[in-house]
Specification:
By secondary structure, the protein is of the alpha/beta class. It has 13 helices and eleven strands. Helices cover 44% and strands 12% of the residues. It has a seven-stranded mixed beta sheet, with helices on both faces. It has a two-stranded antiparallel sheet with strand order 3-4. It starts with a strand and ends in a 14-residue tail after the last helix.
């Protein structure tokens, strides 16, 4: 059972606390999801943590429990310049020095930066806070448009919904795509999103959005025919656009290119087949649309830092280890 710590102190966002609790604090073992032990960790357990909106969080463990945690999660902040208590910063430093995975949602990156954990590292936060993070923490390399990012076993995520993306990704990294999909289905959200937060940055709304439904239909068609040799040119024809126009509209809507999106869908399909079936590797590659086992293996290596066979060994529902793996990778 993974031991997960939610680090609490005055100023944390109720939304991020809710996301963390929904992902790791709800028992879904009857649906095949992993079991988690989520603890609310604070300086002491006697004082409720106030949050905006009249909410309060009641800690059930002190910071000493971080020494037992497999994953440490830092919620975002209502005021992103809120100073974390020194004992919290010290505890975060010690947790990371032990090799524990540490992840921050949205403005939680400011807390990690206060602890010095992001010095010399790449990090992301909400697009509207990028300049603020750069100004107050110039030793952090702020990536402006990613949904989430990892550097040195420290994860940071962009605003609000990207925190859900990161939480599901951490589950997927530790327990496989099917475990993350089970939790996502329960939350009625996508198990993963492609693209970057560039698609959400404020800009003038187009006078017409007539292409949106067409592009959605094209993506649905592609998902139903991943085993076919789909090309950008063929998808552009289906959308009634030139390849150049199709690629431009597709990227504007999804935040990623058609080729990148197709690769992400094929990797996800291959992961599901490796987890759920005993199909031979060439057949998995064919059904996912890679064409050959060699091509599939190359993409697994470059995108997932593993091989299809190693992935199946770690995450197959019938594998000897039950599909579990260490939280930190």
């Amino acid at each position: 059972m993974d031991r997960v710590a939610l680090v609490a102190f005055p100023g944390i966002r109720a939304f991020d606390v809710s996301v963390i609790t929904e992902v790791w604090g709800t028992d879904r073992t009857d649906r095949g999801a992993p079991a988690f032990d989520l603890r609310r960790v604070a300086v002491d357990t006697t004082t409720p943590i106030p949050m905006r909106g009249g909410f309060a969080l009641h800690p059930d463990r002190t910071l000493a429990w971080l020494s037992r945690a497999d994953l440490v999660l830092v919620p975002g902040l209502d005021d992103h310049r809120t100073p974390a208590p020194p004992p919290v910063l010290d505890a975060l430093r010690r947790a990371h020095s032990r090799g524990t995975t540490v992840a921050a949602l949205c403005g939680g990156a400011f807390t990690l930066a206060q602890a010095g954990l992001l010095d010399g590292r790449r990090a992301v936060t909400h697009w509207n806070l990028v300049d603020l993070l750069r100004t107050h923490h110039p030793r952090v390399t702020v990536v402006p448009d990613a949904l989430f990012i990892e550097d040195g076993n420290i994860w940071t995520a962009a605003g609000t919904a990207a925190g859900i993306d990161l939480c599901l990704h951490l589950v997927r990294t530790a327990h496989g795509a099917e475990a993350a999909a089970t939790i996502a289905r329960s939350m009625v959200t996508a198990p993963f999103r492609t693209g970057s937060q560039a698609q959400f940055i404020e800009h003038p709304t187009p006078s017409t959005d007539r292409d949106a439904d067409t592009l959605a239909a094209v993506r649905e068609h592609a998902l139903r025919h991943l085993d076919e040799p789909l090309t950008v040119a063929a998808l552009a024809v289906r959308a009634g656009m030139s390849p150049r126009s199709f690629a431009r509209h597709f990227t504007a809507e999804t935040g990623t290119t058609p080729l990148r999106w197709l690769l992400d869908q094929r990797l996800a399909a291959a992961q599901r087949l490796l987890e759920r079936t005993d199909l031979p590797m060439p057949e998995v590659a064919r059904r996912a649309g890679f064409g050959s086992e060699v091509t599939m293996r190359q993409h697994f290596a470059s995108r997932l830092a593993t091989s299809p066979r190693a992935y199946r060994t770690a995450f197959s529902t019938g594998s000897a280890n039950g599909g579990s793996s260490p939280m930190a990778r």
